[in-house]
Design a protein that fits this description.
Layout: H1 3-14, E1 28-34, H2 38-41, H3 45-56, E2 60-66, H4 70-79, E3 97-101, H5 108-118, E4 133-137, H6 139-143, E5 154-156, H7 160-174, H8 180-190, E6 194-195, E7 200-204, E8 210-215, E9 224-225, E10 251-255, E11 257-258, E12 277-278, H9 281-292, E13 297-301, H10 311-319, E14 325-328, H11 338-346, E15 351-357, H12 361-366, H13 373-385, E16 390-397, H14 404-425, E17 433-440, H15 457-470, E18 477-481, H16 484-495, H17 500-509, H18 514-520, H19 526-529, E19 544-545, H20 550-566
Parallel strand pairs: 1-2, 1-3, 3-4, 4-5, 9-19, 10-13, 13-14, 15-16, 16-17, 17-18
Antiparallel strand pairs: 5-6, 7-8, 11-12
Helix pairs in contact: 5-17, 9-10, 10-11, 13-14, 14-15, 15-16, 17-18
Length: 569
């Protein structure tokens, strides 16, 4: 083993507070993998939650592994050192299971890099009895695991707190008593939410669409339910490990809500993560106390933090607990009351994030965003009145039915917000900046827009240039945006079927070169990305029961397109 690589692990552990180190013995050993670098992975509350959940099981041992930094990856190859875990520096091949936490589709190529560095066969069908089982979970897998089907032995779909305990009990009792295949078959038959891809046969029509999907054994369920927890108060979801070496190193993260009742048509959290659930103030008080012992700032996380019925009392309890401070992400414009804004000012906050998403009222109605231009300006006025001198605004381009007039409406809305910010800040602390973050709309499985194609990246680039050009002379406005090329890749990995796995394998062979992979593999990526799907066809993820009737999604999709037909731009 490379001493340099081991020393780096020990240095990371020395800066951490709260990690678990168990003694290797008879416990079921699991290496929890995050397919990105340490700094990013340790900022993910879901990853930390699963790590703590597994280690709370008395017969399980869980350690962590991350994508190595570029220089370290070369060090593994040069020293012939297989990838090893952070806590004990054990090779991944020594574990019973390697479990991937999957939040973002663009991380998928990193999964193959981690497996390769660990010396674990990439294809699930050729793994040997002694190889670890490779399992996956998380929101990305729950939406659509099919592009990864060739590489995973098993997926656990839904919320980890709901499905993991049952799976761990079965793995502890049976994994070492049964053969690999016998254990996977047991999991597929007996554990709700378990999905073993190779136990399902997919056939295709001549045009590439799915013709049928059948289990290879009648004992296997035809549909896999997404597991979820009705009552969030039954368990904590909070940061277990604190360290300065993360993107949110200065705060303690805790989850206050899941799901969203708003139903924005583009948002997976508003559909797949239903129903909306909120932790009670009583259950959060303990989390806040634990957090304030470690950090002065409590970061409140959730899909709809602004909708929490006790948000103001919760924030007040943090402020009144020895000088604690509060951090929240994007806030709903129509939930910004004067008492809430006054409270945010009291925390010392000077930057607030808002998500208008679209510039025109017409397009906000299409995506069902649920608020008006008047409410947007009212929110800006409240924030500036309380000296919130930096505003971050999130907009999407490439939305269904979008026109050039909608793009111009973004410019006019931003200019109007800047004008009001300057006017209302006169004589006060002084408005500083509007940061405009532009992201391309990407269709997601399980939403009303799952049938809609991605907008052509060339058109998106043109529309981004239109916005940046029109705002170039606005000194207080800063425009940032993502790279359309990577949006195309994300859409491909979000909407693809098992065939896309061939592209992932080629990308791995060519060290991340997607252009070369597209040339080499006889798969048309535009088929998944740019094709408008029919509502009656079988989609790759239709076998997952997300808890939403397909008829509802179709109705919402048609209403969205009908809104465009019935209203002038």
């Amino acid at each position: 083993m490379s001493w340099k690589l081991k020393k780096k692990c020990l240095a990371l552990l020395a800066r951490e507070e709260g990690y678990t180190r168990k003694i290797w013995g008879d416990a079921l050993t699991i290496c929890l993998a995050y397919p990105n670098v340490y700094r990013t992975g340790m900022s993910n509350l879901g990853f930390q939650t699963v790590y703590a959940l597994i280690n709370r099981h008395p017969a399980c041992l869980c350690e962590r592994v991350f994508l190595p930094d570029p220089g370290d990856e070369a060090g593994h190859a040069a020293s012939a050192t297989p990838l090893f875990s952070l806590e004990s520096q054990k090779p991944l091949g020594d574990f019973d299971l390697v479990a991937f936490s999957l939040s973002f589709e663009n991380d998928y190529p990193n999964i193959l890099r981690i497996l390769d560095l660990a010396g674990i066969p990439l294809a699930a069908e050729i793994r040997r009895e002694k190889d670890p089982l490779v399992i996956g979970g998380g929101i990305a897998a729950t939406l659509n695991p099919e592009p990864l089907a060739d590489f995973f032995d098993l997926f656990l779909l839904g919320e980890g707190e709901a499905v993991l305990p049952e799976f761990l009990d079965a793995a502890v009792a049976l994994r070492r008593q049964l053969t690999r295949e016998a254990f996977l078959a047991h999991a597929q038959k007996e554990i709700s939410g378990a999905y073993v891809p190779r136990y399902y046969r997919v056939t295709y029509q001549c045009d590439g669409r799915i013709a049928a999907r059948e289990p290879v054994d009648a004992a296997f369920p035809r549909r896999i339910p997404k597991r979820w927890v009705p009552d969030l108060d039954t368990f904590p979801t909070e940061q277990g490990i604190t360290t300065a070496g993360t993107e949110f190193g200065g705060m303690f993260l805790t989850e206050v809500s899941r799901g969203c009742r708003r139903g924005c048509r583009f948002c997976a959290a508003g559909f797949v993560c239903r129903p909306a659930r909120f932790r009670s103030a009583a259950s959060l008080e303990g989390s806040f106390r634990r957090g304030l012992e470690k950090r002065k700032t409590i970061g409140l996380l959730g899909t709809a933090v602004s909708d929490h019925p006790d948000l103001i009392p919760l924030c007040r309890s943090i402020l009144d607990s020895g000088g604690g401070s509060v951090a929240v992400g994007s806030l709903r414009l129509d939930r910004l009351s004067v008492p809430l804004v006054a409270l945010l000012k009291e925390t010392g906050m000077e930057t607030v994030s808002l998500a208008p998403e679209a510039g025109s009222q017409r397009l906000r109605d299409v995506i069902r965003k649920g608020f008006t231009t008047k409410e947007i300006f009212s929110a800006v006025e409240k924030l500036i009145e309380y000296d919130m001198v930096n505003l971050r605004l999130y907009f999407m381009v490439g939305l269904p039915t979008e026109t050039d007039e909608d793009i111009d409406a973004i410019v006019q809305l931003v200019k109007g917000m800047e004008h009001r910010a300057r006017r209302y800040s006169a004589g006060r602390k002084g408005f500083r900046r509007l940061t405009l973050s532009i992201n391309q709309f990407i269709p997601k499985p399980g939403t009303p827009f799952q049938w809609h194609p991605l907008e052509d990246t060339a058109i998106v680039r043109k529309r981004i240039r239109r916005i940046t050009g029109a705002l170039r002379d606005e000194k207080a406005v800063r425009v940032i945006h993502d790279i359309p090329k990577w949006n195309y890749i994300q859409a491909l990995l979000s909407l693809g079927d098992r065939t896309v796995g061939k592209l992932l394998l080629a990308v791995h062979r060519h060290e991340g070169n997607w252009a070369q992979a597209f040339k080499e593999v006889n798969v048309n990526p535009d088929f998944y990305v740019y094709r408008r799907k029919e509502t009656g066809e079988i989609l790759p993820w239709d076998f997952i029961d997300h808890g939403i009737e397909k008829t509802l999604l179709i109705s919402e999709y048609r209403k969205a397109l009908g809104t465009d037909l019935n209203l002038s731009p």
